[in-house]
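Entry 12.
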Amino acid sequence: MTESPWAPPLADLAVLGRRGLVVGALAGVVSAAGLVLNPAQFYRSYLVAFVFVLGVALGSLAISMLHHMSGGAWGLVIRRILEASSRTLPLVALFAVPLLFGLRHLYPWADPARVAGDEILRHRAIYMNPTFFTVRLAVCLLLWTVFAQALSRLSKKQDDAPAPGLERRMQLVAAPGLAVYCLLVTIASVDLLMSLDPHWYSAIYGVYVVGGQAISGMAFTLLVSLFLVRKGAMRGVLQPRHVHDLGNLLLAFTMLWAYFALSQFLIIWSGNLPEEIGFFHDRLGGGWGVLSVSLALFHFAVPFVFLLSRDFKRDIGKLAWAAGLLLFMRWVDLFWLASPAFHPGRLSVHWLDLTTPVALFGLWLAAFARELGRRSLLPANDPNLAVALEVHAHG
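Predicted 3D structure (tokens):
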């Protein structure tokens, strides 16, 4: 790795990792105190934090598989960032363990007393129960990790020695992997988020979450790209044309998320069925409406306007500002999805809602920095790399 012309900035990554570890550990200690003082609130906040971190790792995996399927210079220059993110999935799986101890604080179907008094919960008990929930979540995390590790191993093998067949093998892993990813995200999103209100359902919920994860993965990747450019590691590699393509992808994912969000709202609102409309009724009143408007503005409208600009999308520094905003709004969106189930009448933000995501993301960032430092920043033996790095007259 040290002989590679694209060696990662190990010292800078070590500093980033240490900072993430220290901040995450401190926030974790504070959050642990919250677990003792208010267990119910701790698990509610922890759920949002967990799904947020999971979304960054899974979004990176999905974009990586998309690149293997489609090709393109844009994916080669960020492939190692995506792979490092997806290799953190075993740690994310460990983050899921505390949730299993707080199911009764989160889900009505996990409380035997509530199940006994609710005909719908009794009807769904064969599927929605703590044991089957745990099995499904474990299977999802395992399969996601298997695909991530398979692609990462093949990529590492390509670094060790050029082999014409490796590119095709990665495509053969990515094709079913992308389909399995979408299916499992749908299952997990229903389990983790939609079942907070087991009387409500939406057929488009899974793809809505998939769209959000794509934004999380791309936004984080752009922020890391800016970090590497400023440290000199990617300077001269990440050209304006690459940045422009990444900006277009971020714009596409943002529009996709907005399309799913608006479609879900219009279908349910126009249907005006009591068992469906309550979801949006709870999120448009009692202070939650302010959060709903902020999502429309800062998760779509504001980034959309800036991402339409060609000049904006060709400047990694400017594009990173949009990425940072969207990454923060991803947490806001997940908070908006989950928290009204516990506070339907009023907007409520607890200090644990702030410390738990800082704790998990800080610890996750430390693991990511370690993984990114283990390999060259570019796949040196990829047959398409030379073309991807050609300097074009117009950047």
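Annotation: Residues 237 and 389 are 7 Å apart (CA to CA). The chain has 18 helices and no strands.
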